[in-house]
Please model this.
Amino acid sequence: MRSKGITLTRHILMEQRAHPSATGELSTLLAQVGLVTKIIARAVSRAGLADILGVTGAVNVHGEEVKRLDEYANQTFINVFGHSGLVCTLVSEEMEKPKHLSENCSQGKYILFFDPLDGSSNIDVNGTIGTIFSIHHRMDGDRHETDAEWFRPGSEQVAAGYVIYGPSTILVYTAGNGAHGFTLDPTIGEFLLSHENIRIPGRGKTYSINEGNYPVWHPSTRDFIDHLKEKDPASGRPYSSRYVGALVADFHRTLLQGGIFLYPGDMKNPKGKLRLLYEAAPLAFVVEQAGGAAGSGTERILDIRPTDLHQRVPLLIGSSEDVALAESFATGRKKRDYERRKKT
Ligand code: AHM
Ligand code: MG
Model:
């Protein structure tokens, strides 16, 4: 796809014009997210030279070791938004508690949730990594948020997206009017529109899951993956397997080419591994805006009301037909029931 030279900032402003009551703060906030990710992209591209690989020695709220690049990315969000007056509170995968940026929330009408560096295990091997973000309006009032502020379903997000640091750096965002992708042109330091109004195929040919977890999968997950591996040219099977191990990378491929990504609950981790507020919900918003679907196996991701800041959720995300098929296995309905429903 050839770029028409539309920058991220211009695109955001064009979207803003569709909302006459908009003050421009969300547009500025999104543009600042673009800035944060450009700074992270620069560090990522020079990571092997800049003494930024390896671990810090700390362990985060999830019990995972913190990589130096995780910490750098998190600190970049804090630095950029610290005195911006745009955001009242930051909620990060790398911070146990919300970080309030102004006294009594006197400034900033938004809350920014983010996973600063997704796919951390890929950092030291020059694999693809990313950043995921989600923006909510804060509730009215001049105090810092109460639990009610955090525990709102993904359907209330005002904008969300991700950045993938791969061979190119690509930012995809939605503000509820389609999902749009921008490629960073490093020679001018600008994100340029490259994937306008992304539409995910209704069905794909690829599944993406960590098969090393097969021994602890529930029988329904095994049945679903076994089903996708069966030879049945009439229904497009067998599917191919692709797994990068960085959610942004596996999701981005699925968004562009169709198919399904799964991190289901299993016998070891009933809620899977991925976090609702800054991993599953933002990508669910993006995929639905592109015509796809995201569920936990039993619920639409965007309908889930969180009860914990860092809670995990099983995730089935991608092409709507593939997700529906996965859900038909997850809820115990047999594949024959699904096929019968499709025919009627
Ligand atoms: P992170 O945000 O700490 O990097 O962890 C989340 C990552 C996802 O990017 C990826 O989909 C998943 O963990 C991979 O997990 P696993 O190594 O269990 O397959
Ligand atoms: Mg992550």
Notes: Residues 115, 118, 247, 279 surround magnesium ion (ligand 2) (CB under 6 Å). The chain has a mean pLDDT of 90. The chain is about 30% helix and 20% strand.
